[in-house]
């Protein structure tokens, strides 16, 4: 493969960047499906979001270097994910106050 | 050549720490590994040439969201306590799902990516350009999303305070 030929000469290929965001995204998916604590699930969601934002910046840089839509989308996505994390953590703290546990399995009663 | 070395170091940091973050037994360690992943991602943005995105990633993600996480972890767990892990079958199903999805997406990427995409030098994004684009109302300018984000931030502040206030 010519990836192995110019591993230290030439430029970093786009597949290398995309591979990194792929690893981050599927690490987030594994963590989301296999963790019990709500905060661990939130950490996995942050990993997934970060990977998607990195994808936008990478495609903007490699395929459309004179436009900036991907760059601005990443900026707005970072702001949105900050808002969403803040509200999620507020909800988790409220759950802890009522149930003294932040495990996913402990939230199993509906309000009467 | 220096770019490739720095890229491979950052890539190794991101890959290793993101896998350790989702498979660690203690939750504070997961949060710390996530912090390293976010700093590595900021370094990748700097390597791509987007200096403003590098600064925003460090300020918002590594400096804001991680502090929120550490607060929430210390308010809801005893620090140092080991997380009881899930059932074995659930972890295997999650691992298989992630691996299948990874293989599928990796096949799509490496089959379809045009191998001659070059890295042209980027025109530097000056603060004047950033200001005009963020506050302008022409075709490729983003005043409306900017104002919408500010309303969203206000809503989330009010919502988070209302949810988490002491009764």
CATH topology name of the largest domain in chain B, in short, is Four Helix Bundle (Hemerythrin (Met), subunit A)
Per DSSP, the total helix count of chain A is 4
- Biggest sheet character of chain A: none
CATH class of the largest domain in chain B: Mainly Alpha
Distance between the termini of chain B: 59 Å
Oligomerization: heterodimer
Distance between the termini of chain A: 63 Å
Taking pLDDT < 50 over at least 5 consecutive residues as the criterion, the unreliable ranges of chain B are none
Rounded mean pLDDT score of chain A: 89
Assign the CATH architecture of the largest domain in chain B.
Up-down Bundle
Helical content band of chain B? over 70%
Proportion of residues in helical segments of chain A: over 70%
List keywords for this structure.
heterodimer, A: 112 residues, mainly alpha, Helix Hairpins, 4 helices, B: 167 residues, Four Helix Bundle (Hemerythrin (Met), subunit A), 2 domains, 6 helices, 0% strand
Describe what this molecule looks like in 3D:
The complex is a heterodimer of chains A (112) and B (167). Chain A is mainly α. Chain A has a single domain (2-106), classed as Helix Hairpins, CATH 1.10.287.3510. Chain A is built from four helices and no strands. Chain A has helices spanning 2-5, 14-34, 38-63, 69-99. In chain A, α2 runs antiparallel to α3 (38-63) and α3 (38-63) packs antiparallel against α4 (69-99). The longest helix of chain A has 31 residues, at 69-99. The radius of gyration of chain A is 19 Å and the shape is elongated. The relative contact order of chain A is 0.11. The longest helix of chain B is centred in the middle third of the chain and has 26 residues, at 51-76. Chain B has six helices and no strands. With 167 residues, chain B is an all-alpha fold. Chain B is globular, with a radius of gyration of 21 Å. Chain B has two domains: 2-117, Four Helix Bundle (Hemerythrin (Met), subunit A) (Up-down Bundle), CATH 1.20.120; 126-167. Chain B has helices spanning 2-22, 27-48, 51-76, 88-112, 127-135, 143-164. Classes of the chains: A mainly alpha (112), B mainly alpha (167).
